[in-house]
Design brief:
- The structure is a single chain.
- This protein has 77 residues and is largely without helices or strands.
- The protein has one helix spanning 21-29; strands at residues 2-4, 17-19.
- The protein is globular.
Length: 77
């Protein structure tokens, strides 16, 4: 699952929601209005961003091998 949109740095979207990777790729193909600022823009379906949280709430490891930071707001989920 991905947060749509996933922004870089400390930016937080006004409204965000979790979507499947296949829906993310489909939205990019259809020029969805949130995709222009998203870190997943132009990336393959299997790409993992450093700050993406896994299904169990743990941070996933990014392309460079470093663990991403987990959003404190997501801890209660």
């Amino acid at each position: 699952m991905r947060q749509c949109p996933t922004l870089t740095g400390d930016e937080r979207p006004l409204i965000a929601h979790s979507i499947a990777e296949c829906l993310c790729v489909e939205r990019q193909r259809e020029f969805y209005h949130k995709c222009h600022r998203c870190v997943f823009r132009g990336k393959p379906a299997g790409y993992q961003h450093e700050g993406s949280a896994g299904r169990n709430g743990t941070a996933l490891v990014g392309q460079n091998g470093a663990a991403g930071q987990q959003n404190p707001a997501d801890l209660g989920r």
